[in-house]
Amino acid sequence: MTLQEIHEKVNQLQDDEGFVNNDAEFFATAVDFSLKKEFFTYSLSRQVSVDTKKLKEKRFVAALPETTESDAYKILRTQIQQRTKDKGWNTIMVTSPQPGVGKTLTAINLAISMAQEFHQTVMLVDCDLRKQSIHKQLGYESDRGIADHLLENISLSELIVSPGIHKLTLISGGKTIEGSTELLGSSKMGHLVAEMKSRYQNRYIIFDVPSLLQGADALAFLPFVDTVLLVVESGKTSLTDSKTALKLIPPEKLLGFVVNRHPSSRPVL
């Protein structure tokens, strides 16, 4: 099968938002591995180029080939897969008790690592409506984000970015939003998350959400996701803050902790 034939098939299987549906993901299993990279490029999404040389400088270690740090995220990825797949969980909220502990860095590294898994794709959504930062950290410009879909009905295909990292797509950007709590807790947001979950059985959707004790945004969004990953930093996050944050997360939704700057030099779940 040629690349042109694959793209024609993708166009047939894409929905109005520009996503390939479950039939398309099933179709991928019949495509030669050497062509899958082209297949998983979202033809309707905006293509940007992330400078891989700068990834290490910004501590996006999951993108580095065969290093101790990237192996640590592979371990984290495997643990998450083992705890979620049997339950059918594929929507993960990444948050922290307080800001400044590497929450967004962890979300990006986790998304990159999980996208490297052969049988799945990953979408990373920036849900910090007061401070969109994922696109800035990855070094590309974006004047639209998830709020533009919620407020102005901009199609997701106009918001999704392919950063040149195999099987990873992103939504990040746009202006600061007032009333972010109400927007994140809205029925439209809930319907969107539910649609993402049901539409993509072989995809993890990771939501980078504001810190739990920073305001009500994370609490408003929490009911919509399958599970929550809480990021803390060794030597910085207080026990009091950790306990307070834990009380806000239903026990059945807590996936675990990620401990950054742990003496073992790797994130610990």
What is the compact description of this entry?
The protein has 269 residues and is of the alpha/beta class. A six-stranded parallel β-sheet has the order 5-3-6-2-7-8. It has a two-stranded parallel sheet with strand order 1-4.
Sum up the structure in keywords.
single chain; about 270 residues; Rossmann fold; 2 domains; 6-stranded parallel beta sheet; 12 helices; globular
Strand content: 5-15%
Any idea of the CATH topology of the largest domain? Rossmann fold
Helix content: 25-40%
Which segments are poorly predicted (pLDDT under 50) over 5 or more consecutive residues?
20-43
Describe the structure in your own words.
This protein is of the alpha/beta class. The chain has two domains: 1-44, no CATH class; 46-260, P-loop containing nucleotide triphosphate hydrolases (Rossmann fold), CATH 3.40.50.300. Helix content is 39%, strand content 14%. The chain is built from twelve helices and eight strands. The chain has helices at 3-13, 22-28, 33-39, 52-55, 68-84, 103-115, 134-138, 146-152, 180-184, 187-199, 217-221, 239-248; strands spanning 46-47, 91-95, 121-126, 161-162, 168-171, 203-208, 227-233, 254-260. The strands form two sheets. A six-stranded parallel β-sheet has the order 5-3-6-2-7-8. Helix 5 (68-84) packs across helix 6 (103-115). The chain starts with a helix and ends in a 9-residue tail after the last strand. Mean pLDDT is 81; it is low at 20-43.
